[in-house]
Automatic annotation (TrEMBL):
<protein>
    <submittedName>
        <fullName>L-rhamnose mutarotase</fullName>
    </submittedName>
</protein>
<dbReference type="Pfam" id="PF05336">
    <property type="entry name" value="rhaM"/>
</dbReference>
<dbReference type="InterPro" id="IPR008000">
    <property type="entry name" value="Rham/fucose_mutarotase"/>
</dbReference>
<dbReference type="InterPro" id="IPR011008">
    <property type="entry name" value="Dimeric_a/b-barrel"/>
</dbReference>
């Protein structure tokens, strides 16, 4: 399984609302993510709007394409776009800035 980290910028005036929307992500959206190969997916939001995401997938590009083919993702991305800056009219899930992994602590043989 590959690990991916990405960032996006949430509008400062919409931080609370964006966080609130993620307290109750639609069950069909969660199912689509799982079915499309997204694993161990987390979002972290800093108070200046920096959104950092972490996800594990066999192939992120394939997982993104599978999500793009779902109706629920089309609806979710359309609703989420209003919360971001710097995405230039693209859906948020097509605007990720991937961060390179520079260190990973592997489990010891004693674990």
């Amino acid at each position: 399984m590959n690990r991916y980290c990405f960032c996006l910028q949430v509008r400062k005036d919409r931080l609370d609302e964006y966080a609130e929307r993620h307290r109750d992500v639609w069950p069909d959206m969660q199912a689509a993510l799982r079915d499309s190969g997204w694993h161990n997916y987390s979002l972290f939001l800093r108070d200046d709007g920096l959104l950092v995401g972490y996800v594990e997938a066999e192939d992120l590009e394939a997982a993104q394409k599978a999500m793009a083919a779902t109706e629920v993702n089309t609806r979710w991305q359309a609703e989420m776009a209003q919360y971001f800056t710097g995405i230039d009219g693209r859906p948020p899930d097509e605007s990720f800035v991937l961060l390179p992994e520079i260190f990973h602590l592997t489990p010891s043989t004693e674990d």
